[in-house]
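anyone seen this seq b4? input:
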Amino acid sequence: MAGYNKKDSKRNAGISTLKDSIKEMLKEFKLDAKYKETELIKAWPELMGPMISKRTTKVFIKDKKMFVKLNSAPLKRELSMSRSKILALFHQKFGEIIIEDIVFL
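predicted toks r here
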């Protein structure tokens, strides 16, 4: 190959990965918290399972509180009693505290 140099194929110390660049951009534009909230909302069905997911009509976050609208009063009561376990599950999955409370509507 003409023009190919092994030195050129080595990663430069000043070059970062795409993932790191995106994280830095989100942080720079103060969008990292909103991005993490969106990821948490997307993870709701996966973490809670199909039974709870089917009965969930809306999920949103405001002021570090997650609001979950359910169409089942007994499920709402049961999840309200398990609030701390659900929060711990989210904290474990994301490795940090994104929300401080969950409100079931």
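The first strand starts at residue 56 and ends at 62. The radius of gyration is 20 Å. kinda curious what u guys think
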